[in-house]
Task: structure prediction
Amino acid sequence: RLAPLIRGARIIAVDLPGHGASSHKPAGSSYHFVDAVCDAVAIMDALELEHPVLLGHSMGAGISSLVAGLIPSRVRAACLIEGLGPLTDQPASAATRLADSIKQQHKHNRDRRRVFPTLEDAANRLELAQQVSPESAAVLAARATEQVEGGLRWRADPRLRIPSRVRFTEAHVHAFLSAIEAPVRLIQAEDGFPFEEATMATRVALVRHLELVKVPGHHHVHLDHPEHVAATLQELI
Result:
């Protein structure tokens, strides 16, 4: 719903491994946030993208933040919707987090994806879980499901739900954010993800050329109100 409103740009929409129509990783593999950052750089290399504008929502915004700091000379600009860097953790939580991740891995290695009788049933589930409009839920459900015996199930690899084995600390994230050279447009929804204010304020202050814009809407504002987001992004694109 957002892409058609962005004028004058070649848009490359990526399904990361395990998401959307992309393949799942082989048995015994896992999904880590830092791997997604490496995947994004690999995509830039494979497509020989010189100086792209990065556009990401939520986790995608977190990925784009780190890519912009990792290879600052290769990023022309970054448009971040509801996210600036990934979720972090305290060093003292490392052992507990790893233990929980290992425990959950055994659970999610068994594919028990729910089967929905109809696309409408899947959309209704998304509407409740993601706090999106019925129209946006229908868009997401159509993209995120596949036909199986008895109905529809989510395409995504169940292992994506395994908690991270390790998270960056705030100091790690600060190192990436302070290395960003490109202009950044950070879009936050007025009723979006409940970021911790002091943490977000510190992150924002570290990015030299960042403009923060607040728009009405919830976390999936780019789906519910794409016109608000497109108007804000157009200058950087």
The radius of gyration is 18 Å. The mean pLDDT is 93. The chain is about 40% helix and 15% strand. The CA atoms of residues 117 and 150 lie 7 Å apart.
